[in-house]
Hints:
Helix content is 0%, strand content 43%. By secondary structure, it is mainly beta. Strands 1-2-3-4 form a 4-stranded antiparallel sheet, with no helix packed on it. The chain has a 4-stranded antiparallel sheet with strand order 5-6-7-8, with no helix packed on it. It has a 4-stranded antiparallel sheet with strand order 9-10-11-12, with no helix packed on it. A hairpin with a 4-residue loop joins strand 18 and strand 19 (208-212). It starts with a strand and ends with a strand.
Amino acid sequence: PAVGGGVLYTTSSDGQLLMFDAATGSQLGHIASISSDGITPPTIGDDLVYVGTHSGSIDAIDTASEQIIWSYPTHQTIQAALALVDSVIYGVGLDSTIFALDAATGAELWTFQTSGAMDFGPTIANGMLYISTDAGSVEALGAGVAANATPSVTAEATASAVAMEAFDSAQVSFVWEVTKAGASPLGQPVPAIGPDGNIHVIDGDLQQMLVFSPDGELLDQWGERGSGTGQFGYSQSLGFDAEGNTYVFDTDNTRVMKFAPDHSLLTEWGSVGEGNGQFGFQVEGTVDPVRELIY
């Protein structure tokens, strides 16, 4: 889910965009059949909402008129949520391509081939664009930062957009790549930019948190696989609050865990079920540091 203007936007497996009051949870509306094959979590702009589709497009939707304003054909599945910075939409595909589009018109600005398909990302900060690939790497692309860059997000933006800086695409180039020690691949790495500006990555094989500097240097490594207190199962998303605490959304163990900046476990909650505080099969989430809420 994503939050903007007091509205929580989320998507369904059958390709609908759903809108709820972020404070009360009451449903405000929905837009049906954007793509029956499925769509990505939404990304919020000033006037439009953007999604990628599993059938192979990036779409801009006017929620007021419930119309698709433009649709860019990617010819490959878009599975990861898009990123919006300085009027540019960034998307990544399962055929190893990064797309940069004009957010207003959908016009292609540039594309770039990576070393593998991308299930997560892109994330933009530090004047760099970060992605993770199913080849087991985290990669950084860069070309500089606009001097007066301002993110195209509202004050109520979700944690994934906090502290983003514009990515100057004039000369797109590969900057660095990280894997495990010995060049062995990371397992389905899930990256996010922390409030400290570093890249925090969940290694899907080891179920550990790896922390890299903006230059790709490994700074820290913590956590372990398991189902015990503070241990990780397979996790597909993470987020941070305003105090620098880390939230891990643990699908295997059907729970959310909150860790302090020193990695100590502060609390955890969740179990399988349909009651309050329970989850279905897949646990993913978004941390809203402005409202101090988790969705």
